């Protein structure tokens, strides 16, 4: 399955988790990864199991990136 298909399959589910503001595709160490953008990172120990972002999806690494609060620009 392509990384684009995996992202599309899981995007809605990931967007329901706390602090998640976006999901995309990026690169890490020359490999494509799924990026999950959050307002701020939270220790896994502070989250309920269903709130934790998985480390991989369908064999693709998932990277959590803290980006702060997103606001619309005019």
Report on this model:
By secondary structure, this protein is an alpha+beta fold. It has one domain. Helices cover 18% and strands 35% of the residues. It contains one helix and four strands, in the order αββββ. The protein has one helix at residues 3-15, and strands at 20-28, 31-38, 56-57, 60-66. It has a four-stranded mixed sheet with strand order 1-2-4-3, with helices on one face. A hairpin with a 2-residue loop joins strand 3 (56-57) and strand 4 (60-66). The protein starts with a helix and ends in an 8-residue tail after the last strand. The mean pLDDT is 94.
> Termini, distance in Å?
38 Å
Biggest sheet descriptor: 4 strands, mixed
Which percent range describes the beta-strand content? 35-45%
Report the helical percentage: 10-25%
| Unreliably modeled segments | none
Shape: globular
The string of secondary-structure elements, in order, is HEEEE
- Count of runs of 4 or more consecutive helical residues: 1
- Derived structural class: alpha+beta
Global Rg? 12 Å
Overall mean pLDDT: 94
Tell me the strand order in the biggest sheet: 1-2-4-3
| Domains (count) | 1
Count of distinct strands: 4
């Amino acid at each position: 399955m392509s990384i684009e298909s995996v992202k599309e399959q899981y995007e809605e589910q990931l967007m329901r988790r706390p602090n998640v503001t976006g999901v995309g595709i990026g690169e890490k160490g020359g490999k494509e990864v799924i990026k999950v953008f959050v307002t701020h990172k939270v220790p896994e120990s502070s989250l309920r199991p269903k709130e934790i972002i998985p480390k991989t999806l369908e064999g693709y690494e998932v990277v959590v990136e803290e980006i702060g609060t997103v606001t619309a620009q005019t």
